[in-house]
Amino acid sequence: MKKFKLGLAWQILIGLVLGVIVGALFYGNDNVTKYLQPVGTIFMNMIKMIVVPIIISTLILGVAGTGDMKKLGKLGLKTIIYFEIITTVAILIGIVAANIFKPGKGVDMSHLTKGDISQFQNTTEAVSHSGFAETLINIVPTNIISAMASGNMLAIIFFSVLFGLGVAAIGEKGKPVLAFFSGVADAMFWVTNTIMKFAPIGVFALISVTVSTFGVKSLIPLSKLALLVYAAMIFFIFVVLGIVAKMAKISIIKLIKVLKEELILAFSTSSSETVLPRVMKKMENLGAPKDVVSFVVPTGYSFNLDGSTLYQSIAALFIAQMYNIDLSIGQQLTLIITLMITSKGIAGVPGVSFVVLLSTLGTVGIPLEGLAFILGIDRILDMGRTVVNVVGNSLASLVMARWEGRFDQTKYDNYFENEEKEATAKA
Questions:
Q1: Is 3 within a domain?
Q2: pTM for this entry
Q3: pLDDT given for residue 110 in this prediction
Q4: Strand, helix or coil at 375?
């Protein structure tokens, strides 16, 4: 008789469902936050501590293996162009969806609960003073240790690329360095798999706290906004990203199946960081070269936030409609351009979507106070946009590999053949 083993995706899903049940049963009970928040925080901290070592080691290995500055420059330019096109499409879909379905029209503001947005306003002031030039300056770190400590992804990528090129340039002398970082990468992936065994418990704790704090009731007055955001995100994944995937000869359905564990985890924790190491490993297994994956996926965390930009465009128009403000086509174009600029390079800022919205709404005359009304359901919406961000960045690495002519089709085909064989063997 075969021993039954529950897969990680099912374990995380069970943790998610149990967390929702416990949170709903103990809605408003501070003890849930008191006892379970530390569990969720410990899990999130364990994931965050491995992200930087994995990015540095894999990127140095990949770049040193390529050793071609010109090739890396071409990859970087293509990646940024691709990110800009995709995020602009996401913004446009959000604008069109909000104009057609008008989620903010007829909302009774007297029944809405206001949240405190002061914590985001403080961050916004700092962000608003740093324009595009400041973002470019921050890519070059004055202190790489400080950049690693603060999780400045772009600075870490910049240093790792230069270091990898340096290792490649010194030839034989660089081999011990490569052996060291190869060992670091392998060890960190082992640590990742070990930490993931605790994922169901971490997900249970985080979801319990979320539901017990906000409750299902917080969704009711803003249900039209929540439904539209999720519908637009589903459309974006299966239609927009589906078309992009088909052009790259990749199945978006197969990609989602491969990432099922990571997507459930990202949804539950509202954090892309929790799945970054495993996403990178899986994209390599699907046929994208190590240096492409190591560059594209982390860079996407700052420049390719499809779910976030889609949500921001809908939320901006929702607030305008809530206050009965009719935005002209010119104002909406201003909103699109502003979102295209402000949504880049600040992924490490807490509550990034709120920060971007606060620094954007004023440009088209939308009251910033309106954000306080949707703060209550932001965590629920954040769960959805995190999933879109993960799918978008995962697909981007495969698309870039195909665009560079370095996609391993045999590896891709063999991956799914082996999956089918394993499934047949289990049955």
A1: no
A2: 0.86
A3: 60
A4: helix
